[in-house]
Amino acid sequence: MTSPKDLSTLVPCSATVYKFLYAQRHSILCSEHGSLVIERRFDGHKEDVKLLVADNTSDEGRLVVSYDASQTAIVWDSATGGDVMQFASFEEITAAAWVRDGKVAVGNTGGSITLVDPMTSDTIFSRTLEKETITALSSSADSKTFAIGYESGTVIVATLQPKFTVSHTLTTSTVPSPISALSWHISTRSAMLAVQARGGDLRVWNVPHTQGPDNHAAVIRTLNKAENSDVGPYWMAWSKNGCIVQYSGSETLLWDVKAKQVTWVSVPTLEYVRGLAFYRPGAALFTLGPNHTVQQFDLGSPPTMVVNVEHAEGLLPPPSMADAGPVALDGDISE
């Protein structure tokens, strides 16, 4: 029987405009929105996949970066299964985020971030907090500003170019806990940043666009369902219409944070979810459950399950293979 102890780490999952992707050991399965039929299997990795992030921020939105236990990262095209580039890192990669301009940022256990342009293989290397493991990354809509979360519980808002510059440090009076997820919601006057910690704490910060003595980042919402347990893992993402979807204490919640009086509704996911992904423009939530169960939800009002399928291992399509070796890049990334 599945138990929370079996689910301390979520299976790597992500979503593009057309596909839900999830890791199955060294393979990545690609299923179609609406039917969840598996139409491709990406088998470029030789060891288990540890990180999987699809580009759902740029105009193209087809590329995916995946990273495995051998410390090899592959950027590939979800529409064709074709390999775009590979790279390896001396430091373990622990977080990744796509940027609106088509680059991908990867953070590591040494506290460094490398911006990679998959089309040109150009890289920009930035040291942030020395020897602080980066556990979460999120790129703002301007392609310059990043929210960076660390194992220590520290969260900073910074730019990487022309040099690493911190604009805000987000601190609270709560006991620090490693950051598991960061997600931006941008408005004309300011930006809102949702911060999920592994200890269960979920807060929304107002982050001013401009710096100054009177422009401080501040907590504007604290999301806490009183009966939530401390059993992880915790996951969250911004949805549409001022809502945040969160997996917490073996329950999936949709929080409405538009008003100061925060409300929530339950999303009818399985009790034990093994992995989650979200496609914000379509308010589509995807979950992976026991026995290869995959579900898709429309997070409208109320949240509704759209598809429920089981993917039998013996009925998978043939693999699409990546055939290029790692390339040498600057900074801590190398062959």
TrEMBL record:
Gene3D superfamilies associated with the record: YVTN repeat-like/Quinoprotein amine dehydrogenase
One CC-aspect GO term: nucleus
GO term, biological process aspect, one: positive regulation of transcription by RNA polymerase II
Transcription regulation is among the record's keywords: yes
Matching InterPro entries: PGC-1, WD40/YVTN_repeat-like_dom_sf, WD40_repeat_dom_sf, WD40_rpt
Molecular function terms, GO-annotated: RNA binding; transcription coregulator activity
SMART domains: WD40
Main location: nucleus
Subcellular location: Nucleus
Superkingdom per UniProt: Eukaryota
Keywords: Nucleus, Phosphoprotein, RNA-binding, Transcription, Transcription regulation
Family annotation (PANTHER family): FI18188P1, PEROXISOME PROLIFERATOR ACTIVATED RECEPTOR GAMMA COACTIVATOR 1 PGC-1 -RELATED
Protein name: WD domain-containing
